[in-house]
Task: structure prediction
Amino acid sequence: MNASSIPFSRPLRPTPLLAAFALLLAAGEISAQATELRRGRTLSGTLAAGDTARYTFDADADDFVLGEVNQISIDVTIRVLDPDGQQRARFGGLGRGHQRFGGQTSSAGTYTVEVFATGGDDDASGDYEITLLRREDVATDPKKLADQMMARFDGDHSPGAAVRVWRDGETLYSKTYGMANLTYGVPFGPDTRTNIGSTSKQFTAFAIMLQAERGHLSLDDDIRTHIPELPEFDHTVQVRHLITHTSGLREFLNLLRMTGRRLDRGDWIDRSELIEIVQRQPKLQNVPGAEWNYNNTAFGLAATIVERTSGQDFHVFMRDNVFGPLGMTGTMVRPSVRHMVPNMSEGYTPTPDGYMQIGDLGGAVGAGAMYSTIADLQTWVENFASPRVGTRESLDAMMTSFVLNDGEESGYGYGLFMDEHGGLKRVQHGGADVAHRSMLVYYPEINAGITTQSNHAQFGSNVTFELAEAFFKDAMELEGEGEGDEEGSGFDPESYDPEDFDEFVGRYPLDAVPTFILTFTREGDTFYTQATGQQRLEIVPTSDSTFRLLAVEASVTFVRSEDGEVEGAILHQNGQNQPATRLADDEAPEEWVPTEDDLADYAGRFYSEELETFYAFAVEEGELVMRQRRLGDVTLEPGEEDEFAGGGLSFAFERDRNGEVIGFYLSNVRTRDVRFGRVG
Result:
């Protein structure tokens, strides 16, 4: 078990990949007097704008601590500082009600908890209560450790979570926490159906494999064989490209966000839009099979192919051919967000007004839209070990990394990620709908698996890997090991020499979107990363080459060449890995600081035929501001010349031979180079 397996590092909700670089709030004036927190004693307080209340507690190294702030009439943010005064974690996002904070202490001494009003409202003031609920040794028993890890999501006031662990057909641990429905006070139970998000993709890939076994399709088929209304691109997209994220198609959720669709507000998306989106795409984003780029459109089309080759709606096919034969009575595909799901958990997102019940993403069938129980997910994974539905050959193929056109392995099979953990092969897939979170992990060499599910948007699914280390430690080699999204066993951050970070300092464009650059810097003993157009965030070492972000659920692994030179980095978030290649010093462009006259070149209105959407730009107080009817105003940060970023979007402007700006290309990692032309 890692010495830092429940660190104070889970403060903000895991958000979509790369959009999670969020603004860190600054505390106001700190009160001179700190009050001691004692376990079980509730203290009352009042805050006004600019105030910070300070509390302390003494702890030993490797203590588990859990506290709670009841935000009676004020929205607060909570910071935890270690004995050296360094921030260990930050908790916030819920503006009313009970906000829990906690984790594992890194060293012995006096810890400080700072509580201050969230936001910039000068009139903000109100009452709160703070309680230290638990302070105890970090458990060595895996079951008790799981209880500690899930404690933030337990109780009558919180959306919940569920954990299930099994090995060789025996269930080792199964428990649920918190509430499935806050409105009606329904607790999370073992039979609660939870939206598993993208964990569903392996089921869609399995359905494709079943149809291939039955001779109804071939993985080599042109997808237009089954969906002839799709356009004919310069290169053939095969069925196998859909279920390996290598098709080159636009990713529809990212694309629709560009149009102003508010996916976080429940905007309607119909499945039929997937085909319409592909029909409007002028060309592929990459040659099929040449590049791995996570793609929900592709899995939606895969579900359509299952329907057309079987003559059944996808939810009926899955019920009759997969769930029913396996006895997965608690699992179903939700055809749309309007369809009922008996015994379901509602997904909740913390907001300044309390928990918001947002609902599910629309149009997600095939890419998501599946509800299951923790017991059914064990049944599903056990079919990988001893197939009752599907062939051994098909299941092995799903768990084999796809080889790209250049001969490199993608680390992804058919609907499943593959890597190593503790010396064991790990097969896994996480999922995140608007508020639900899911992770399903299988270790085939020891016939063991683990799943965690939650209806709380702040739940960090990577806790699943840490729990796996506790339950399967007898089979793992963890001594001195450090993984990209986990902390290295036995590593002491205090022993890290800050000057060693200098070899990592530099700029790292994402391979998938070169205009999106991660910049790493050092100021004294503090290390930072900053993504294009976003705020700078502090990172801390977890080994000599891995770092975790303090403000979000993400981490970074630096990669060396054979001669030991740092040549790249990998960003790990939500179970996904985004490689980035380092720019050499002579490749790094000089900083571009546009003048107001320069910015005036970009002012105007632009229109995309593909998206049927307008964007407008204006210069305000020396900055370029993007306006879109539903996205609102976004101040853009300049990058290289003619390039800007902001709001999770990257803009690369285009000039004609006379130097006039005539358009721009819009990207947001999974969808890129959508052209807008100037219209005014």
In short: The first strand starts at residue 29 and ends at 36. The radius of gyration is 25 Å. The chain has eleven helices and 39 strands. The longest helix spans residues 296-310.
